Each structure stands twice: as C-alpha cells, then as structure tokens.
Amino acid sequence: MGEWVIEPATAEALSDILQIEEACFSAPWTRKMLEAELSGNPFAHFLLAKRVPPGDVGAVSIVGYLCFWVVFEEVRLMNLAVIESMRRKGIARALVIQALEMGQAQAARCAVLEVRASSHAAQALYHHLGFRDVSIRPTYYTNPIEDALLMELDPIATESGLLAQHIHREGGPITSRQ
Fold this sequence. Notes:
Layout: E1 3-8, H1 14-24, H2 31-39, E2 44-52, E3 61-71, E4 74-82, H3 91-105, E5 110-116, H4 120-128, E6 132-141, E7 146-153, H5 162-170, E8 174-176
Helix pairs in contact: 1-2, 3-5
C-alpha cells in the first residue's frame, strides 16, 4: 500500500488540489478560489496528504488535502477531501489533528466547521475528535441544496500527544512534515 506523509501545500500543488476538489465535491471550489486561498489569504493554510509507494519515491501522489484558517483564537476548517480509494485509512483524521495542532501553536483555543447534514462519515470523524454539534445552518450548501451542521471543538484538546496516540491506535504509517 505504501506510506503517506502530511506536509504544507505549495502553489505547485494547485492542479492536484483542484482535481481532488472536483472529484470529491458536488459544488467544488474553482481554481481561482483555491489559488486565492493558497496565495492571497494570510489566514489560510493548506496541508497535503501524499502517498509514497514503497521503494518508488518518484511515484508520490497527492491523495488528500485540508484548507483551514487560523483567525485569532479560532481554527476554521474550510475544506477537507481525500480521494475515494484512500478513505478510511486515517488520512482525514491526521490532516485535522495536524491543523488543530498548528492552530494551537498559533494560540488558537477553539475550532469550528460546517459539514453537510447528510455527510454522516464526516460527522462521525469530527465527533470522534471531540467536536460537538452547535446549530443548523438552513440551506447552507448548494448542488444539492442542503443544511449545514455547525460543529465546534472548544477547547482544542490535542495536547501535543493526540497525533502520536492516533498513529499508534490506527497503525497508520504517517510522517508529518512542517
């Protein structure tokens, strides 16, 4: 299966991020929107999950990403996507934990996100990480029109060992680079 690593995104990854965005979302962000987040938003951060097949460093491929903002004391998870063939391997969880830890390092104390009301797998991930349901945002999403569930983690409870605990518990091969 190979190993995967998490590292900050660079502008060179834009095409790969766009491809994942279009494959994973019914109303994907445009290239221009992603580009603005990658290079024009001082609050925005992107993390990439890259698959590294054993013995073939030249075959590295981007399999997921997370766009998040750190604004004052808050981490705002914006877009999280993992290609279908790499789901249920702990990649999304590791991306979120890394973002929370990066937010904590910048003095963030809470995290928020919106998730489609029908996205039960994503909700389960966030609940497992300690997020709680706060409210419903009616007709928040388009294509199809759907409510969003607003979720919050307050305080952020990663305490610098959560990522290592997760890796040990899930048995997933991960290297994190910052």
